[in-house]
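Morning!

As promised:
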Amino acid sequence: MNKIPNRQAICEVLMEKAKEDKDIVVLCSDSRGSASLAPFAEAYPEQFVEVGIAEQNLVSISAGLAKCGKKPFVASPACFLSTRSYEQAKVDCAYSNTNVTLVGISGGVSYGALGMSHHSAQDIAAMSAIPNMRVYLPSDRFQTAKLIEALLQDEKPAYIRVGRNAVEDIYTQENCPFEMDKATVICEGSDVAIIACGEMVQPAVKAAELLKAEGISASVIDMYCVKPLDQEAILKAAAHAKLVITVEEHAPFGGLGSMVSQVVARECPRKVVNLALPDAPVITGNSKEVFDYYGLNAEGIVKTAKENL
Amino acid sequence: MENLKALSYDLRKNVVDMIVEGKGGHIGGDMSVMDILVELYFEQMNISPENMDDKDRDRFVMSKGHSVEALYAVLAAKGFFPIEQVIKEFSKFGSKFIGHPNNKLPGIEMNSGSLGHGLPVCVGMALAGKMNKQDYRVYTVMGDGELAEGSVWEGAMAAHQYKLDNLCAVVDRNRLQISGCTEDIMAHDSQEERWGSFGWHVISVNGNDYGELKAAFEEAKTVKGAPTVIIANTIKGFGSGVMENKANWHHKVPTEDEYTQIMKDLEAGKEAALHE
Ligand SMILES: Cc1ncc(C[n+]2csc(CCOP(=O)(O)OP(=O)(O)O)c2C)c(N)n1
Ligand SMILES: [Mg+2]
């Protein structure tokens, strides 16, 4: 079982690139430990800015740095980064088009029993609604690393969400197909298309295996690029299937499910079922307990597929 | 009068048990803030299970919501819920006792957890008291790291503007936050000058000393036309050398050995308090 959380994969890429690229700057808001960025702060004190517990300040400072040629990577809990500093993200990053990469750590329900103040189940909706803001939820550490490398190649704002815990690998070091803003098709099938992002890709893959054993053929799309959404991949999978299931660690409105439903309804009408967290504070528990309770697991996906086919 | 100091050591033990059972908790800040909470709930505020719906009750908001374990221990000691239940259920699957204040529980007015909300909320509560000509008082406790949030200072300005002498804020000045010493992360000194320049009445005390805390809260009640802030100089991890003044005890579960030593130290603290 993999022990490296996606946040650590981010740190490793930034450490490597910062050797050569002195414009890379990492900013934290008393969050370097939880972001796995303490090694970066130690190795590159001149390329690290600590702002204290001040997320609004954090994002505006980053925008200012970017405007003057720096490449800021801003790491703070997804819950605070996507709500407390929402206007800073909207105005200073997206509207002014500054090269700021916002890294929301401990996303979704990663903080478990710490409750709703610490859950970020609205971040996809909130960030996607901002013109010129891109939204990425990478699934495993290999994909996360490739995404960070790709983001270093352009100069536009982006929001990334990663979870707190290490997740099982989906790809390998050698085999991690990645094209920027193109979803990764993990497998193809003819009965159901499962479209997932972030930590939900793993259960989607397992569900496809379970379904296969029961004679149901499923495709699995890793939609790490929630915005810009890879519409082509969605339509291709939907066209071949009778049912589309979306799975996300997010509120039921305005996230991946809503966005996929819009595209499918318009271009290739099929039944779409959205699996998501409820429109309520989630039950107390760790991520796994929460996912199991709401059916955000392989069994839940299988059940949904069988009920709706 | 009850020996509050002795009581506080028992409540710290409850906190440690909660955190061990629940496999997580903000232990350092629980220990520093405990005496402030005990003084508020046992000597200052008119809040109890009997009057919790009374419109004239004093109001309290735990702005540094991560120290909820200390608040649970104090609320349990006040009879809001059984401590055994908290220890057993804290942070467990399906529990009401989550890792931040949650107002589905009796005795908790406002949910918190995101830092920098408590003071502005209390400005609203204190303003309502003025509008309604009620004489309840409003209290909040903030962390010192929390003071980097701009919203704290927006609230501080408003409290001065509206002359909220029914509002008393406490800063748990333990000089540590997650990443280390507050003065290295985002310097906060001088607290006295900062709050003073915002028009607040400022009282600086040893925040782990009941005599000084009590005198400060009594003084705050006599101030007219301005809000009061008590800079409570505390020790993060107070009660055991295992945790005192150590940044890495912000959020931590003691090992078995650490648990034994901490409980021994807290018992020794209680014994000393009983024989003072
Ligand atoms: C808005 C917000 N940002 C970040 C956090 C994460 N966080 C929880 S506790 C903490 C450190 C708090 O330090 P301090 O205010 O000094 O509290 P204490 O030392 O009393 O525990 C941080 C950054 C949070 N809860 N809310
Ligand atoms: Mg502190």
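Residues 195 and 246 of chain A are 5 Å apart (CA to CA).

Hope this helps with the figure draft.
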